[in-house]
Structure formats: C-alpha cells, structure tokens
C-alpha cells in the first residue's frame, strides 16, 4: 500500500508560524470505524474518514471480505454492514501496507471467523512483532502461522470456537488490548484485558457507541462474546497525532500560536499537550463537544521559551506516537529532557528511539539513545540530512525541526507520510513551515 518510490524533501529554516488549521481524521478511529461498521447490522456512514494509506488498507481488506463500501465523497463512506458472521473468505492475500493497527486488530477480529486468510505488509510491517497478538489469541483457540521470527506474512487458520481469556497484558499496547477484546466478541463468555498503563481506549468507546457493553474496573476492561453491533454513523475527529506536529511548531517559536479546530482530545491521547504545558508552552482548549463518545475541541498552543523535563512511562503511554516530535521540542528547550519507559517506541514503523537519536545528532543536537528511551540536551539545530527510514512520524518531526535550524534539513524517504497524513505539505505550508519536495 505504501509507495515503494523514495521521496525526499527539503525543510528550510524560518517561516512565520501561526494560524488556524484543520487536520485530517484520526487514524485509530478511522480504522475502527470501518472495521466495526463492516460487522454491524445495517448501514453506517463515516464522515471525515482518514484517506491515508493505512486506513484505505483496512477498508480495502473489508471490501475483499465482501463488505460493500460506497465512497460518497473523498472522506465520506457508506459501509453496508454484513453482521458479525457475514464476512466472506478473501480470494487473495490481504496487503495491509505499513499499518500495524490494521494487522493486529484484524488478527483479533478475524481469528474467530471460521475461514483461513493471509495478511502481509510492507518491509517495515513485515519486521514488526506479531507474537504479542498471536500468543494471547492462540490461548483463546485461534491458530496462526507466521515467520520463525513471529512476523508477517501471517496466516490466520480457521478455528472452531474461541474461548474467553482473562489476559494480563505484558506491554502497554492498545493494539494488543483491542485484538484480544475483538476476538472476545466471538468467544464464549467474558474476555478481559488488564493493562499495565492506560492505553488509548477508542475500541472500548466505539464498541459502546455501537451498543455493545464494555466494562472497565480499574485497569481491567471486559466484554462478553456473542452480541451484535448496532449500526451507527460516525464523525471522525481530527487526529491529535497529526495536529501535534503543528502544536510543536508553535511551541518552539515564542509568541507563535497555532489553533486547530475539531481535534480529538480523548484523555488517553493527550499526553502531548501535557508535555508541552510542562515544558512551558501555553495550551488552551475550547469549544469542547462529544462525538460518538469521543471528546473533540479546538486546541491552541502558543510558544514560549521551553525547558527540558522528565517524561516517565505514565506520560509515555499517553503520548506514544507524539514522542518523536516532542523530542524536537526537547532539542529546542533549555536543559535536558529524559524519556524513560518508552521501549515500545523501538517497535514502531522504525525503531523511533534510534532513528530520532541518529537524526538529532545528524542536525547537531546531543542525543543519547537508551534501551528504554532517550536523553536530549537542548541546543542549536544546525541542519544537515536525516533518514526517516520510511517512518512517517520521523519525516514530519524533522520538517518541524528545520524551523529552528541554521541551515536547511534534507529529509530522506518521506513517501510514507501519506500513510497517516495525506496533504501534510499543504497543511505545513499553511502553518508557515517551509517544507517542499526536493527538486
Ligand atoms: O490502537 C491503535 O490505534 C494504536 C495504538 C498504538 O500502538 P501500540 O498498541 O503498539 O502501542 C499506536 O502507536 C498506534 O499508532 C495506533
Ligand atoms: C505506530 C503507528 O501506527 P501503526 O502501529 O498502526 O503502524 C503510528 O501511526 O505512529
């Protein structure tokens, strides 16, 4: 699904950062919207759907399993739900491109369908660990084949019956939690997941929005199998993870303000705003409302001289995808920022501890990669060349960093930005960043 052609960008220093923006729909919510509406009893409309390659891969996989999806306009889908048992075996392997969320959630959702299918992905996804889902799902009676390393290509074999599981999850992962809960929809009895840290809870909120009872007691989430999903329309909020690039762009420019309307502020996702506040930026939230159980608001961030802080594992889980760009904020802050409890960053689209430490060093910042995080000493960004290793969030993070650089930053391998943020370059230009394809 992701482009095989490498795409390079150049980001130049300066630029008048500011203004009022909209960002595309939330990636996590768009995946779940298309998955759950495909299994609902009836027709669902999804507005502000993210058209990034990751979510298109999820929609294409559902179509390959017999779900009719009409594109009413670019970001507006009508999904004709087939009911919990209505999916058909696909006739080909399902290519999920760069998307870890698609692969892991599908493992759970498809484990109990009673047919066999194979999931593949691009080079990055083919390296990512899948045993974290296949292990607990196998305990429920699901059967998988993977490579010896536990990676994709991954075949889900037809399983007779799934049994419920009470799972104490060893890592803080919303994808693993969701995979087990989604398999639990097809299991006999009550399936529960206890999470070591709070992780994003979009699965729980959206299942409830579709009329499915999900309970939470402390850190334990549970549901009973055998129910139905009631068709419901979904308006996807703007993606806070995409907005984060512009919030950091403002935060590192004293006096600059970026305001983004209609952005999701689910409490399990707002670590980025808390980190920026603690570093000294001003964060304001207004016009708050709810959309299918998800809080949405206008968020504005105003820059100030930032200071380095400690970011521990509680905050890490609430800001997991925003950490790369927060490392750029740390590079522009006075003093040291130390991030710990972030080993999960090493198993994303790239090893984000290593790619960020290498990139920061390449542009003149002192950064020390640690097994579970990073230490960054704020300083002057000098410019140079970084390799994003095909990781969308790394490319966008250094596009933001260039603003405070002396020389331009050349960004290698940026095509995968389209997996999560189609239109990033236009949006960045609107926000005042000076980034464009390298001629
Ligand atoms: O559930 C989700 O939608 C996601 C969960 C997180 O991954 P982990 O569950 O691996 O932490 C996050 O990094 C990813 O971008 C989206
Ligand atoms: C980690 C990410 O996504 P995924 O796991 O779905 O590939 C991300 O978008 O930063």
From TrEMBL:
Reaction(s) this enzyme catalyzes, per UniProt: 3-phosphoshikimate + phosphoenolpyruvate = 5-O-(1-carboxyvinyl)-3-phosphoshikimate + phosphate
Alphabetic keyword roster: Amino-acid biosynthesis, Aromatic amino acid biosynthesis, Cytoplasm, Transferase
Signal peptide location: none
Main subcellular localisation: cytoplasm
EC number: 2.5.1.19
Coiled coil: none
Positions bound to phosphoenolpyruvate: 27, 100, 128, 175, 352, 393
PROSITE patterns xref list: EPSP_SYNTHASE_1, EPSP_SYNTHASE_2
UniProt xrefs under Pfam families: EPSP_synthase
Recorded metabolic or biological pathway in which this protein acts: Metabolic intermediate biosynthesis; chorismate biosynthesis; chorismate from D-erythrose 4-phosphate and phosphoenolpyruvate: step 6/7
Cellular-component GO terms for this entry: cytoplasm
Catalytic site: 321
Function: Catalyzes the transfer of the enolpyruvyl moiety of phosphoenolpyruvate (PEP) to the 5-hydroxyl of shikimate-3-phosphate (S3P) to produce enolpyruvyl shikimate-3-phosphate and inorganic phosphate.
Alphabetical list of HAMAP family matching this protein: EPSP_synth (MF_00210)
Complex and partners: Monomer.
Protein name stated in the entry: 3-phosphoshikimate 1-carboxyvinyltransferase
